[in-house]
Amino acid sequence: MSKDKNAIINNMLSNDPFSQWMGIEVLESEPGYCKLSMKIREEMTNGFGVCHGGITFSFADSALAFASNSRGTISLALENNINFTKKVSVGDTLTAETEELQNGRTIGVYKVRIKNQDEELTAEFRGTVYRTGKQHEIED
User: Which pLDDT tens digit goes with each residue over 62-80?
Assistant: First the structure.
């Protein structure tokens, strides 16, 4: 098993074509926490020319997945919700930063705050995960 604290997140990202398509980059990570970034492209917009809400939700969901799995236990989303607070446009660079609210044996709860390049809050996401009890197997 790898001793690299980022190994789980790096492995998850390398096996996640959707997060790769979104252009997600890991800026920081530690057990129970991650900070991600991505730039909004034209093909991520809806019919109103703003970032599709599903893209923002997916960005937050990836942050949830990486943070909740970073302690080593395979964790799966049970329930998520999001509030959109500011429109996101093509060319904006978003960051998603997690906060671990509860780290239980079987349940974890996280808040993800998404901000634009001007540090303005664009969305707030809350996610609950189930801890399966199975460990990630990452080779050195």
Answer: 999 999 999 999 999 999 9
